[in-house]
Write a structure and sequence with these properties.
This protein is an alpha/beta fold and 154 residues long. It has a single domain, classed as Rossmann fold. It is 42% helix and 25% strand. The chain is built from 4 helices and 5 strands, in the order βαβαβαβαβ. The protein has a 5-stranded parallel beta sheet with strand order 3-2-1-4-5, with helices on both faces. It is globular and about 55 Å long.
């Protein structure tokens, strides 16, 4: 099996993302760099609630609550991947960005120049969860490094 010196992993804690994490960790060579990208999809910008948020003060409180919840969940995921990387003797870095997942991944790969980009495949139909999908056309046209799409776990 080939090993890589620098892997860019797009991961956010779903079952598919965790499968991608396992693959990335297995493919990383001794002392390699694992860079984790967590993309908060841009649809979160519009998550200000419904009509019950009828004044600016209530909206601000709700927005801070949503932001704190997202930050907490992201930090839990990052800590887990960081620990797995450390256990394997890998160097670790993370980046959290807000935007369209595929565009953010292409931008990050362009800046970091990894040897490999690893992502999980989409959830199967009827599986619960948000559908923040990677746009395959954006990835295939924009990435200048190999892309590994890890199958969804059965």
């Amino acid at each position: 099996m080939s090993t890589y010196r620098h892997i860019l992993l797009a991961s956010h804690g779903t079952a598919g993302a965790r499968a991608a994490e396992r693959a990335a960790l297995a493919l990383a060579g001794a002392g390699a760099q694992l860079s984790q990208l967590v993309v908060v999809p841009d649809f979160w910008k519009g998550m200000m609630g419904d009509d019950w948020l009828n004044n600016a003060s209530t909206r601000d409180v709700y927005a801070r609550h949503v932001e704190r919840q997202l930050e907490s969940e992201i930090e839990q995921e990052v800590a887990r991947v960081r620990a797995d990387a450390a256990t394997r003797g890998l160097r670790y870095a993370r980046q959290v960005v807000l935007g369209r997942p595929a565009e953010c991944l292409v931008d990050c790969a362009s800046r970091l120049q990894p040897d490999l980009v690893v992502i999980g495949s989409p959830r199967p139909p009827r599986a619960k969860g948000l559908r923040s999908r990677m746009d395959p056309d954006t990835l295939l046209r924009g990435l200048m490094v190999p892309l590994l799409v890890v199958p969804y776990p059965r």
